[in-house]
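User: Can you predict the 3D structure of ABC-2 type transporter transmembrane domain-containing protein? Sequence below.
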Amino acid sequence: MLGNTISAQPYLLLSSLIPGALTYYLPGLLNDYKHFLYFIFVLYVCMMLVESLMMIIASLVPNFLMGRITGSRIQGFMILEGKFFRLPRDLPGPFWRYPLFYVAFHRYSYQGLFKNEFEGLEFPHLEGGASAFIIWGRDLEE
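Assistant: Sure. Here are the predicted C-alpha cells for ABC-2 type transporter transmembrane domain-containing protein:
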C-alpha cells in the first residue's frame, strides 16, 4: 500500500494540476497564484483521500464490483453530508449530523475552497445601500 501510494504521487499531482488549471481560470476566479496553488493543493488532497479510502475498501472487500459499489456508496454519503446540499442544522438525526458530518472530508474541502475564493472579497454598493449583482457583465437592476 505504501509503494502504491508513493508511486501514484506524480500522477495525482498532474491529475490535479492540469484539470485544476482549466477549471480555475475559465470561470474567472481570483487571478492570484497563491489562491491557485491552494486550489490545486485542495484538489490533490481530496484525490489522495479518495484513493486511500478506495485502497482500504479494496483490502476489505474481495470482489471488485462489490468494492466499487461500496466505495461509491461511502462517497455518496459523504457528499450528501458535506454541507453542499443541506445546512448542518437541517440534517436529520444523530447519525447523519454528528459522525457523518464531521467525518466527511467534502465538508472541509468545500469550506477551504469557499474561504479561498470569497474571504476578504468586497462587493460594490449602489446608491441607497442596494447591492449591485452582476451576471456575465450585465446589471440585474437594468
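The first helix runs from residue 2 to 25. The beta strands are 134-135, 138-139.
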